[in-house]
Amino acid sequence: MPPEAAGGAPLSLVSASLTSASGPLVLAVAAAVLSLIAVRLLERWLHARAVLDHPNDRSSHAVPTPRGGGLGLLAAALPLLIWDALSSGTGGPALPWVMLVGGVGLAALSWRDDLRPLPAIPRLSGHLLACYGALWALPLPGPVFQGLLPGPLDMLAAGLLWAWFVNLFNFMDGIDGISGVQTIALGTALALVAAATAVPLPVAAPLILAGAAAGFLVWNWHPARIFLGDVGSVPLGYLLGGMLLMLAAHGQWAAALIAPLYYLADATLTLLGRLARGHSPTQAHRDHAYQVAVRAGLSHARVSMVVAGLNALLVALALATAAGPLPAAVAVALAALLVGGVLSVMRWRPLWLGPVRAASGG
After folding, report:
1. Which parts are annotated binding residues for Mg(2+)?
2. How far is Cα 257 from Cα 343, in angstroms, rounded to an integer?
């Protein structure tokens, strides 16, 4: 491998890679169009069958809204992911079959959970089985935690982290637009970093998920006409989380940490804070920073736009890590400061934000 590729000549290599591999971009556009159509048709079907998300203690909406929009997103994305796998990858390796099988299995489990809630133990057991089964089969080139943990502990910790990411992606799907925005950002970051570093990672797969999320976002933007449901958030967290672990195992740990940092930080800090206050981790709540911001009066759209802006900066910082160890360390520090600042603003809303409109459900 040429030194510049190994070190990751960022922008020029990204441009050349994406220009010479327009296939992934075509698949992303196809996923967006198919998702746009499929989610609209699905909305009517869910309404007719009264598959609705009724407001509860965790909700930030006030009106019963169809849930299960992830079925339409997956109906658009999965055939393209399978086609990419059958053609041995477009613009890079395909998503491993074991992850596709795990994603479909979790979608089936989560759809059952959407229709009639499952107890926590069988639900979490399914998540752990999908994560550890894939880790056992994936040909990871190195340790996920960069040698900080011995081999067996690295595998154990990676599986737990993956299962946590699956669940936090579900927990964070609490206002209109936020998970669509997050999926677009993570899919874009994964594809760009793979191209910039020339590591053998999927390029088409994350862009397909990003495209499908963009199509879904048209109907999920505030006021949302449909929600992802567990059938959407759980498989998305699984597929994106798995690709982030693959990125870390290829030595790009800084990018794998920076790209999802907002979701990781908000969900993890909220969980730790609730545990410190003696709350049950399974109890429904609205304590995430983005939910606090909505309760304070910011609209769903405004909060999701803040998250989108933050994620755009995180994508740029993740890409900057390809330039070498020193830029990677600086990028991690800047990402931590940015995310910490945004979380503080969401929770305490300083005066410079100005007056906000009363929050509305949706």
Report:
1. 170, 230
2. 17
